[in-house]
Amino acid sequence: MSDGCILPEDLYYWIDKHVWAKPEPDGTVLVGMTDVAQSLAGKIIVVNLRSLGKNLARGKSAGTLESGKWVGTIPTPVAGKVIAINEQIKGQPDLVNTDPYGAGWLIRVEPADWNTDSQNLATGADGVAEYRKKLEAEGIKCSH
């Protein structure tokens, strides 16, 4: 792990946007920011997420984040209806920094078409290798 970035192989990555999707057994999909994104953003101080029931197109904003050096939107890697938001990160936004793949998840979506959306995401050992190649090409390293 020369770049220092944690990239689990069981997630689906939208590499260019530094977001992940994780299909759950109930058919829903968790969405969050990658370790790369939180490292680039720095200490996250505010998280605002879309409302429950909101239908999001792939690439549309799942919410906004603010850190000491960055304010921006979080694109969703999968189209669908927001059925849960992570209420815990409203009071503890730094969970996105400390546990981006666990307690720092952002929204849960009922996907409109997971089969199609997942084809546009990188996953498994090959997906992680592709992501690492991009990080190396852009000189991105994660700090923990």
Automatic annotation (TrEMBL):
<comment type="function">
    <text>The glycine cleavage system catalyzes the degradation of glycine. The H protein shuttles the methylamine group of glycine from the P protein to the T protein.</text>
</comment>
<comment type="similarity">
    <text>Belongs to the GcvH family.</text>
</comment>
<feature type="domain" description="Lipoyl-binding">
    <location>
        <begin position="28"/>
        <end position="110"/>
    </location>
</feature>
<dbReference type="InterPro" id="IPR003016">
    <property type="entry name" value="2-oxoA_DH_lipoyl-BS"/>
</dbReference>
<dbReference type="InterPro" id="IPR011053">
    <property type="entry name" value="Single_hybrid_motif"/>
</dbReference>
<comment type="subunit">
    <text>The glycine cleavage system is composed of four proteins: P, T, L and H.</text>
</comment>
<dbReference type="InterPro" id="IPR033753">
    <property type="entry name" value="GCV_H/Fam206"/>
</dbReference>
<dbReference type="InterPro" id="IPR002930">
    <property type="entry name" value="GCV_H"/>
</dbReference>
<protein>
    <recommendedName>
        <fullName>Glycine cleavage system H protein</fullName>
    </recommendedName>
</protein>
<keyword id="KW-0450">Lipoyl</keyword>
<dbReference type="GO" id="GO:0019464">
    <property type="term" value="P:glycine decarboxylation via glycine cleavage system"/>
</dbReference>
<dbReference type="GO" id="GO:0005960">
    <property type="term" value="C:glycine cleavage complex"/>
</dbReference>
<dbReference type="Pfam" id="PF01597">
    <property type="entry name" value="GCV_H"/>
</dbReference>
<comment type="function">
    <text>Is also involved in protein lipoylation via its role as an octanoyl/lipoyl carrier protein intermediate.</text>
</comment>
<dbReference type="GO" id="GO:0005829">
    <property type="term" value="C:cytosol"/>
</dbReference>
<feature type="modified residue" description="N6-lipoyllysine">
    <location>
        <position position="69"/>
    </location>
</feature>
<dbReference type="GO" id="GO:0009249">
    <property type="term" value="P:protein lipoylation"/>
</dbReference>
<dbReference type="InterPro" id="IPR000089">
    <property type="entry name" value="Biotin_lipoyl"/>
</dbReference>
